[in-house]
Design goal:
With 512 residues, this protein is α/β, with parallel strands linked by helices. Helices cover 52% and strands 15% of the residues. The relative contact order is 0.12.
């Protein structure tokens, strides 16, 4: 009996081994290897496209292609594999931000992790929800879900993340005027939505098993929505940029690496060079001249060393001059923009976390008396609500001293392009270690000059100022709120059991 039992056990072991060998036969191993190679190619392909299409120096248009490899993969592999591909592609494509956040901006690593890893996890969730709805036969919902969830995340982070609307893929298209002007209706949120809706529709077109009629409906609806958004953006933007033309001058003075105390030889030299720059630009017809942020460090008792010569040249030339400085006041030091003549003082309202923790923020918008010109400073322009508030109060031009970090000269200046387009307001932004930029009320760049501290740089431009209010100024972040509603609706749609499972891509539903 014992020997027969052992023989039976041996037979069962042999049978099990045969099953395992059949499951992992040569064709199966080849199939797994092929799937792995396809997965790797899609992941790396999207990561490379995200790297080229977004970041500090993106190539316009590439961001539209970046999601396509992993979206193509979505209905063809398991949900876990798709999530991993999407998350890793996003993380790989944006990994270059790590040193910028932690070293250049000196932000805590927790902020960098939140943006990079959080963004990767959210993009993975968007892609898996897209996959689930696609496999359920709800291809229209799939495209909506992909765009809405991401846009919702961008919008909510702009409200609670502490860095305003800094974190958005929309800025990657800041060189494409037709797309930029969509912001005059929806803000940057509508642009982010389109940047994922278009590849989502293309991926739906390529997905297996979807009826031809449904593919055409999804692609056609996306194309019509995109055309209408671009057309409406151009109409809204044109109406909002019907104000008078103002000639602006922009200056970034040569200076030592640190902020220069005004009561020093270097400070006095810079004041003299500032007066000379005002003379030169006024001679060329400038009506207002803007200097860069924190060019000087000034105690309240020393302010006359800057005020007297600047006021004198401004009055003599009949121009307005805006200077940027750190100003020590009795109740704390502020990052100030001061307009002369008249000494209108504005304190920067949104300070860079960490880097400006020793400064006291301002709290109110300021306009130059008898002019529809508002003051702002650098990081303020990363806040759509601040610019919108100034426009609602009648400002037609924002004068903004700024200070960038050289490597971000393109990205940070183009955020101002989006603010101009959103609120239909002209912006004159003078950035040291960045670019001198003059932007009209349609978000069009009228002057752009790279700057550094080794020599004085100037720019002169005629810019069209604000006319009518844009729809974005009137309605605010309506599209951001809509993205939240759509996200909830898409989540509920994914929870519903499809009425007809055969309506999804054939051969894949059983493995969803």
């Amino acid at each position: 009996m014992r020997s027969s039992t052992l023989a039976g056990d041996d037979q069962r072991v042999t049978s099990t081994e045969e099953v395992v060998r059949k499951q992992f036969s040569v064709p199966t191993r080849r199939r797994l290897a092929t799937l792995s190679m396809v997965w790797l190619a899609a992941t790396v392909g999207s990561a490379v496209l995200w790297t080229i299409g977004t970041g500090l120096h993106p190539i316009p248009g590439i961001a539209l292609l970046a999601p396509l490899p992993v979206l193509w993969l979505a209905p063809r592999q398991a949900a876990s594999a798709v999530y991993a591909a999407a998350a890793l592609s996003w993380l790989g494509g944006n990994a270059g931000y790590w040193s910028y956040f932690t070293e250049t901006l000196e932000q805590p690593w927790s902020m960098a992790v939140t943006l990079l890893v959080g963004g990767a996890l959210i993009f993975g969730a968007c892609t898996v929800l897209f996959r689930k709805l696609l496999l359920q036969g709800r291809s229209g919902w799939a495209v909506l879900a992909l765009s809405a969830v991401w846009t919702c995340a961008e919008f909510l982070f702009s409200r609670i993340g502490g860095i305003g609307a800094w974190w958005s893929i929309a800025y990657s298209q800041a060189e494409v005027a037709a797309i930029v002007q969509v912001a005059s209706i929806t803000g940057v949120w509508g642009i982010s939505f389109l940047l994922l809706a278009v590849p989502g529709a293309i991926a739906t077109l390529m997905a297996p098993g979807i009826p031809a009629g449904r593919r055409l409906v999804v692609v056609g609806a996306t194309a019509v929505a995109t055309i209408l958004a671009v057309g409406a953006g151009q109409w809204s933007s044109a109406a909002a940029s019907s104000g008078p033309v103002t000639r602006v001058g922009l200056v970034a003075l040569a200076q030592p690496p640190m902020y220069v105390p005004v009561a020093t030889p270097d400070g006095a030299r810079m004041v003299a060079e500032a007066v000379a720059a005002v003379e030169q630009l006024a001679e060329q017809g400038a009506e207002v001249i803007v200097f860069s942020e924190k060019a000087w460090h000034v105690r309240q008792s020393e302010l006359h060393l800057l005020r007297d010569p600047i006021t004198a040249v401004a009055a003599r030339r009949g121009v307005h001059v805006v200077v940027g400085l750190e100003l020590e006041q009795p109740h704390g030091t502020v990052n100030a923009a001061i307009a002369y003549p008249g000494e209108t003082i504005y304190a920067k309202r949104y300070l860079v976390p960490g880097l400006e923790s020793a400064l006291r923020p301002g709290s109110v918008p300021i306009q130059i008396p008898d002019r529809s010109w508002a003051l702002a400073v650098c990081f303020d322009l990363d806040r759509p609500a601040l610019v919108r508030e100034n426009r609602r109060q009648g400002a037609t031009l924002i004068l903004a001293p700024a200070l960038d970090f050289t490597v971000d000269h393109w990205l940070h200046s183009r955020m101002a392009v989006m603010r101009a387009a959103e609120s239909g307001i002209a912006i004159a932004r003078a950035a040291q270690l960045g670019e001198l930029t003059a932007i009209d009320a349609r978000g069009g760049m009228r002057a752009s000059v790279r700057t550094d501290i080794t020599e004085t740089h100037t720019a002169l431009a005629d810019i069209r100022t604000a006319g009518d209010r844009t729809l974005y100024v009137r309605w605010g972040d309506w599209f951001g709120v809509l993205s939240i509603v759509l996200t909830v609706a898409c989540g509920l749609a994914a929870l519903r059991r499809p009425a007809d499972r055969s309506s999804g891509p054939r051969g894949l539903l059983d493995h969803s």
